[in-house]
Amino acid sequence: xxxxxxxxxxxxxxxxxxxxxxxxxxxxxxxxxxxxxxxxxxxxxxxxxxxxxxxxxxxxxxxxxxxxxxxxxxxxxxxxxxxxxxxxxxxxxxxxxxxxxxxxxxxxxxxxxxxxxxxxxxxxxxxxxxxxxxxxxxxxxxxxxxxxxxxxxxxxxxxxxxxxxxxxxxxxxxxxxxxxxxxxxxxxxxxxxxxxxxxxxxxxxxxxxxxxxxxxxxxxxxxxxxxxxxxxxxxxxxxxxxxxxxxxxxxxxxxxxxxxxxxxxxxxxxxxxxxxxxxxxxxxxxxxxxxxxxxxxxxxxxxxxxxxxxxxxxxxxxxxxxxxxxxxxxxxxxxxxxxxxx
Length: 342
Hints:
Keywords: Oxidoreductase. Belongs to the Gfo/Idh/MocA family. This protein is 33% helix and 30% strand. The strands form three sheets. Strands 16-15-14-13-9-12-11-10-17 form a nine-stranded mixed beta sheet, with helices on one face. It contains nine helices and 17 strands. The termini are far apart.
């Protein structure tokens, strides 16, 4: 085996050399530990507009480099890929800058502020020959593919409906960037994107129309703090969802068939010891799992295999564009109190 590499079958694969563009909290909690644990990744350093902060973070994790600006990281030829956890309004400019610097990009969700931005990002990355992925880590967990396999098998009959919820109470944190509308704040962007993406995945379809009601709070920058909606898919299947940042914590997804249902609870934040699937049919109830895996590591691994040419992207950039189109429609429906046709 070549140095600094991993094996995949008969292949020797060079580890993907990562940089983190920004020092956001999600990096500390989830992404940095995942990159350090991944056998496909080598985390080189962290960039911050404050060099001392970047140095502290890099030293904390034993990383060889720290950068005092995002530009410095993008100019480093050792960096092959960047993870972007910046506020939503900065996703587009820094993804484009990274692509033009020849870096592959894993960008936090939602990938942009609207579908036009997402399309521009996808176009620039394609032209630059770099891989762009939206960081919905839950989709890389094996139970998601397994749930779709169960659905396709017909065990729960024909798909009739999907119901998803993702809420938490962050109303007291008035300095939160999620309370800034111009920066892409609000509950639909922050957590509503999860059940919306899941419904697109499990139906295998793009929606036809949405109707959403939301609570826009003047106390929180005018963003949608709560939202409930109906998403219409072809064939009469629908997603009903509620999401937001001003309610008790809930995190579940239910896939309802004519003969049974599949329950993911928790759905979008599975832990290594709490990531089972519950299947309920007329024959009874069973649980599959726990799987005991880290979805953030699996996300990094899939990204690296795509970059190295071992497998196609699990979710290409055009999927992110379609997702943004749906998010836009949801917010337009809520603001104008109308049914939005896609």
